[in-house]
Amino acid sequence: MAEIAEEGGGGHGKGKKRGKKPSARIDMTPMVDLAFLLLTFFVLTSTFSKPKTMEINYPAKPEPTDNIKPPEVKNGLTLILTKDRIFYYKGEFILPNDPKGRPATQLEETDFSINGLHKLLVDLNKSAIEEIKVLEEKAKRKEIPDTTFKRLVMEAKGKKEALTVLIKTDDQATYKNFIDVVDELNLAMVGKYVTVDMMPQEYELLKQKLGNQ
Amino acid sequence: MPKVSLKKPSPSLDMTPMVDLAFLLVTFFMLTASFREAEPVVIDPPGSHSDKLLPENYILVSIDASGRPFFGISNAQAKAKTLERMLQKYNVQLTEKQKKEFMKLSVFGVDIKELPRYLDMTDAERQKYKTAGIPNDSLNPQLKEWILYAAQEANAVYLEAKEAAKSKGQDFKMEKPRYAIKADQKTKYISVKKVIDTFTDIKIYRFNLITSYEGGSKKE
Questions:
Q1: Which of B140, B147, B131 is nearest to B198 (CA)?
Q2: What is the predicted pLDDT for the residue at A127?
């Protein structure tokens, strides 16, 4: 380390005062300390403060004059969020005493862990995920150009067999719960998801579930 | 014993190159770093695996943990114009100094009638000031008007810049204005929904939800 090459200083006892010879070496240690301190500070602050975003589309409010038929959904899943808990059912909502004799919808519970929601989504969206994997392989080997790849991925996500998810939240759910779900949907390559209001029947079922425990 | 003894290493090391490098890096990071602007409330966004960056040109609504909305515009030109229109609509007067102060705020969350008083405060006073957020209900739809005017002005500024670049034959780099929503982990989803409904009322359907990056690659 650089050291101070200081003169003996004082103690000579000579009457005449002479200007001290400036030493040829300066102790740089404090300066270096400071430089590294600042360096560390800027490195840490600059890389961690940049916010990331998630793009999301919301459905347009239908105009009263519009006459839109609800799209046919083959592979549907409804997620119902409440405070840190998540319920779901597959397919369409069936009321008790269904005229066609189908069993009434029951809510099932899952969680935000990798074996919960993630596994559920990956299992249901298998066809799209596999298709996208094949496309990714092709893109890696440069068999298809980048723009075509993106288009094909979009198409794979939009196919009828691909999973369609409805997200419904009650008034206890937090923003974090919602973001976690959207994040999982993105990871599971679900392209068709939408947030909608809960139906009163669903709310009743949810209340029963929450009341039981 | 070897005849040639090794030279004793000098105890003092030449640190000059290291110091040079350290200062070079310090300078680099200092210049590139953009400081987070002071916010009236601390908002801790939830984590996600998305690695998309926040676009440069955005209109932001922040929602804190108790559901109060705050509003901000990144583009200074659009911000000044939006302020003028809002002041005119609500018949509120601001001095030049207050306007300058307004331009410094990254986000704000006060009723426009309180704005002159809020702008006269010092930073420390503002930190302590209890605001109710920007009013957002059908009787007093200030947030909706802020968003609507900001969207119009930001788009106008964008198109103007595009035209100007085109006529001069320059490269056009400005991004289209985007709509960002930032909320705290603990914010109730219905508070966020209320803001999103405000956006969809004026036919804006595409949002950038701000999250913090959790890191790690995609789960398999």
A1: B147
A2: 82
Distances (CA, A) of B166 to A100, B64, B154, B158, B203: 64, 41, 18, 12, 29
Quick one: pLDDT band at residue B206, thresholds 50, 70, 90?
confident
Q: pLDDT tens digits, residue range A37-62?
A: 888 888 777 655 567 888 888 877 76
CB contact under 8 A, B211 and A175: no
A32 inside domain = no
Q: How far is CA A95 from CA A100, A205, B126, in A?
A: 11, 11, 54
> What was the ipTM of the complex prediction?
0.76
Residue A48: other Cβ atoms inside 10 A: 9
A11 min Cα distance to partner chain B (Å): 27
Partner residue opposite B218 with nearest CB, options A61, A169, A187: A187
The Cα–Cα gap between A202 and A200 comes to 5
Would A64 be classed as within a structural domain? no
Q: Per the structure, how many domains does chain A have? A: 1
Q: Is A183 inside a domain boundary?
A: yes
Q: CA of B48 to nearest chain A CA: how many angstroms apart?
A: 6
Q: Is residue B70 part of a domain?
A: yes
Strand partners, B180: B60, B208
CA max distance for chain B: 97
How is residue B90 written in tokens? 């609500």
Distances (CA, A) of A58 to B18, B48, B197, B200: 53, 19, 9, 8
Out of A35, A60, A180, the one facing B26 most closely (by C-beta) is A35
Is B57 in contact with B75 (CB distance < 8 Å)?
yes
A63 in reach of chain B (CB within 8 A): no
* Residue in B30, B55, B206 closest to A42 by CB: B30
CA-nearest of A30, A188, A58, A200 to A124 is: A188
Helix (H) / strand (E) element for B120: namely helix B115-120
CA distance B4 to B146: 83
- Whole-number Cα distances in Å, A204 to A129, A199, B189, B209, B219: 34, 9, 19, 30, 34
Q: Is residue B146 part of a domain?
A: yes
Give a yes or no: residue B199 inside a domain.
Answer: yes
